[in-house]
Design brief:
Layout lengths: L2 E3 L2 E4 L11 E5 L6 H8 L11 E2 L2 E2 L5 H6 L2 E4 L11 H5 L10 H17 L15 H13 L5 E5 L7 H16 L3 E5 L3 H7 L2 E6 L2 E7 L5 H9 L17 E10 L3 E9 L3 E5 L6 H8 L7 E6 L2 E3 L4 H7 L1 E4 L3 H5 L6 H6 L5 E2 L2 E2 L1 H15 L15 H15 L3 E5 L7 H16 L3 E5 L3 H7 L2 E6 L2 E7 L5 H9 L7
Parallel strand pairs: 3-8, 3-9, 6-7, 7-8, 13-20, 13-21, 16-19, 19-20
Antiparallel strand pairs: 1-2, 4-5, 9-10, 11-12, 11-14, 14-15, 17-18, 21-22
Helix pairs in contact: 4-5
The protein binds adenosine-5'-triphosphate and magnesium ion.
Adenosine-5'-triphosphate (ATP) binds next to strand 2, helix 1 and helix 14.
Pfam families: ABC_tran
Organism: Actinopolyspora mortivallis
InterPro entries: AAA+_ATPase, ABC_carbohydrate_import_ATPase, ABC_transporter-like_ATP-bd, ABC_transporter-like_CS, P-loop_NTPase
């Protein structure tokens, strides 16, 4: 199968078998063609050449509804639920069991409850989707995929915004599906989970298959090598130095229910980690400091001086930066070019006009440094792969050069090589005396990159660990409130 977009060979002559009952992982660098390949299976896109057979029968491409009738469902990298409809309404959107009034609706609700049980989701089917957490919404997506008779379930980076615990629960659901013969195609950048959940792995590079192997035949280093085409020496290139004076101090910060009296300080040269479950208040804390959602109480000082922040504009003017976790929501202008997105808000000027040439030069600099894969430096961001979009947001934040920087799940969706480069840049920023707050749900990231980690639970600081005290068990214990956290 091949797929050409204008100027890009996204998928080139790929052959792939997927067996009943297996979890088939697709791995590869950002822009390697993983999502494109899977979208063709789900008939969201048609191939330029080649085709699919299901149980030996050639498939005619007619679109996603047709794919679902043939038993192929896909949960996309970005969810597509209707936020203001109920869970049950979302599950059967487009194929309601019938429109014969309340009896049908009762049948529908009973079916919804069965589906929710199947994916281990304990919420009422009458809940509005907007009120659910990301992890819960994702379960709804999977339940929706299972609402038709599914032989092949495709998941595109399903754990990118889940905590370890939530990922483990997702794997249990997937295992129960494969046990009954469902095939799962699973796109992931997380090496650890590829080995946990995968039976076989196909590695793509530049749109072509590098290899398909049983995961047992590979180790992490070999997998990385086949993805990147070289060894990645150090995934977490951090150099620890003695931190300088406190740059940002937060006292008694409150934000409605989400943040309840949080104190924190972060020093020049320091990377402070924020750990916690989804909903623990990490993002809300960052948004409150950044002025995106005003705090209801609390005091901030920056470099020893009182600081009042009522809007992101004021925060940026004061030298506080924020790499948001939601690149689609408030991160990117999807219709605009990569270059414009990188300089958004503060383009280089000459004589009062935007200096287009300087803008392009700067964009090319970040494109090369972060390996942003784009046909042209002014191509619209919406044409980029998920991980490459994330790199554009990162480039903008790096360029803004804040003295205090909050980065919220910065590695989300990035491949291992890109992540390693990003962490190198964060370390470089720290070495220049900036203070960095790293929010991450991936504990190895926190443990390898941070001087200290603050664990939030239900909006409060549940504990703080120094680098010497780090252990996954302690961090998890503090985050969940289970046990005393001692080894
Ligand atoms: N609609 C489109 N128009 C033009 N180019 C596209 C389109 N969709 C994808 N591409 C390009 O095809 C290539 C493969 O993209 P794809 O989304 O499949 O990558 P991916 O392996 O899923 O990457 P990631 O890990 O970042 O999600 C990229 O170079 C991307 O820019
Ligand atoms: Mg993708």
């Amino acid at each position: 199968m091949s797929k050409r977009f204008p100027g890009v060979d996204a998928v080139t002559d790929v052959s792939l078998d997927v067996f009943a009952g297996e979890v088939h992982v697709l791995a590869g660098e950002n822009g390697a063609g993983k999502s494109t390949l899977m979208k063709i299976l789900a008939q969201v896109d048609a191939p330029t050449s080649g085709g699919i057979e299901i149980d030996g029968v050639p498939v005619v491409h007619r679109g996603p509804a047709h794919a679902r009738r043939l038993g192929v469902s896909m949960v996309h990298q970005e969810f597509a639920l209707a936020p203001d409809l109920t869970v049950a309404e979302n599950l059967f959107l487009g194929h309601e069991p019938g429109r014969l009034g309340w009896i049908r609706r009762r049948v529908e609700r009973a079916r919804a409850r069965r589906l929710l049980r199947r994916v281990g989701l304990d919420v009422r089917e009458t809940r509005t989707v907007r009120t659910l957490s990301t992890a819960q919404q994702q379960r709804v997506e999977i339940a929706k995929a299972l609402a038709v008779d599914t032989g092949l379930l495709v998941l595109d980076e399903p754990t990118a915004s889940l905590t370890e615990q939530e990922s483990a629960e997702l794997f249990t659901v997937l295992r129960s599906l494969t046990a009954t013969g469902t095939a799962v195609c699973y796109i992931s950048h997380r090496l650890d989970e590829i080995f946990t959940i995968g039976d076989r792995v196909t590695v793509l590079r530049d749109g072509s298959v590098v290899t398909t192997r049983h995961v047992g035949e590979l180790d992490e280093a070999a997998l990385v090598r086949s993805m990147v085409g070289r060894d990645v020496e150090n995934l977490y290139p951090r150099v620890f130095r003695e931190p300088g004076p406190v740059r940002l101090r937060v006292r008694g910060l409150e934000r409605a229910e989400a943040v309840r009296g949080v104190d924190l300080s972060v020093r020049a040269g320091e990377i402070l980690g924020l750990a916690g479950l989804i909903g623990a208040g990490r993002t809300e804390l960052a948004r409150a400091v950044f002025g995106a959602e005003p705090a209801t109480a609390g005091r901030l000082t920056l470099d020893g001086r009182d600081l009042r922040v009522r809007s992101p504009r004021e925060a940026m003017a004061a030298g506080i930066g924020y790499l948001t976790e939601d690149r689609k929501g408030d991160g990117l202008a999807l219709q605009l070019g990569v270059d414009v997105n990188i300089t958004l808000g503060a383009p280089p000027t000459r004589g009062g006009l935007i200096d287009l040439r300087a803008e392009r030069d700067e964009a090319e600099h970040y494109r090369d440094r972060l390996g942003i894969r784009t046909p042209r430096v002014n191509s619209p961001v919406r044409l980029l792969s998920g991980g490459n979009q994330q790199k554009v947001v990162l480039a903008r934040v790096l360029r803004a050069g804040a003295g205090v920087l909050f980065v919220d799940e910065p590695g989300r969706g990035m491949d291992v090589a890109a992540k390693s480069e990003m962490f190198r840049q964060l370390d470089e920023l720290a070495s220049e005396g900036r203070a960095i707050v790293l929010i991450s749900s991936y504990l190895p990231e926190l443990m390898n990159m941070c001087d200290r980690v603050l664990v939030l639970r239900a909006g409060r600081v549940a504990g703080e660990l120094d680098r010497a005290e780090f252990s996954e068990r302690r961090l998890v214990a503090l985050a969940t409130g289970a046990g005393g956290g001692d080894e």
